[in-house]
Amino acid sequence: MSQAASWDALTLENVSLTFNAGKPNEYRALAGTSITIRRGEFYCLLGPSGCGKSTILNLVAGFLRPDSGSIRMGNREIEGANTDRVVVFQDVTNALLPWLRTYENVEFGLSLQGLPRTETTRRAMAYLELVGLKDHARKFPYELSGGMKQRCQLARALVLEPQVLLMDEPFAALDAITKRIMQKELIRIWQQYRMTVIYITHDVGEALLLGQKIAIMRRGPASAVKEEFIIDQPYPRMITDESVAAAYVKAEASLQAEVGVSLNA
Amino acid sequence: MPNQLGHFLYRASIAAISIALLIFAWAMFARFFAYPDLVPSPWDTFDTGAQMLSNGELLAHVGISLERVLIGYATGCISGVLIGALMGRIRIVSQLADPLLQLARPISPVALVPLSIIWFGIGDMSRYFIIFYGVVIIMIINTAAGVASTPNIRLNAARCLGAKRSQIFWRVVIPSAVPYILTGMRVALGFAFMGIVAAEMIAAQSGIGYLIMQSRMLLRTDIMFVGLVTLGIVGAVIDGLFKLAIDRTMKRYMEHQVNV
Fold first, then answer.
1. Dmax over Cα atoms in chain B, in whole Å?
2. Which ipTM score applies to this complex?
């Protein structure tokens, strides 16, 4: 933690990755991708499906290693998974541990460190309160709605006080209203803690409501970041805010050009 | 709650009707189509059963059979889970063990009775072995499948939450396999009951299997029927209790795990 505290940017430099190299199903996912994410930034990765968004997230998380290029936090090369970078998955049902109660899921990461039970529970409860799930602490995941499960997963990540929160389309499976509420909650929590957020989505509107910077990715294979938009607009945002709407038009056009169709013709 | 009670009563009455129909058909068959010596009537069977219950004979046989089942079953479950977990975790163990399992699977425990008598004699050890064999194969296969089926996302989640390899195994992989293990235990219990009868039919002086076999010598089909009915009842009751005990646990996994 102390050594990592000195970083000011998370960088991917010329990162390439090929799956199943040399086999018939070889797939060149990333070819020379470079990204710079400032510390504390809310960074959205936007792109069509199969463009390598999740691959980038898995690389930053340390689940995958690149074939070439480097991924660094400051000067430190990322090697393997670590609690300074915690992932919030879309498939929350499989991501949570179904045999543990909500608060036990949240304290799981702390208990792995061998902290005393009273301490882990105390901290878990504090973060459950932060995400508005304190009254449901003793429920099992199957007793929670989709949105509540996602709150639980968020608390489970935040309790470890990660420097980078990696979110892989976390609200994509939620209904429209719940999704809006969760987005607002996430912004509130991010404004309070100012951790770095890398947020993956295929939804232009969502990216514009959340991100300070939005990167649009080229369609795969051999994907890379195509262009970046900076959204310099205070929160909470509305899609109808003038500058947000203007950015929406540009981002949408860029994305449609990438997919090769025009949806407003 | 009243709805649940109503549902339970409904199910119970349907079950009662189903059993009444069986007894009726049995009675009709015994009365009109069969020699009494070949097919005893339900009433004769009941009389014999009541008599054997009151003099303690039946319970003694049931007790000794259950004891044998329990010992073979418990050792089979524990060994099966350990071996299965190793298989699910270490690829070479799985690759080595899998062909052996495929070969062993079609060999029913009954086929091993003569061999186990030669190996272990006519004592209880040979009966434990037969039950153990039937149970351990199922438990290995189920545990290995459960361990191997831990969702990738869950493994990755544990890794970024700071879990080390051994922590992932004990605190994520093994609990993830619990539905498979419990399902295996329930299936294996059925196999254990089949195994004990086969084991007791040859070279035993007690137990339900012995009771059934012995009544053949005496041409006492009524005792034989008592034995069969007892087997059915004891097996169904134990399976029901087992299901009751695991239902709560299974519910937590149900959403995304195997349905049982």
1. 74
2. 0.91
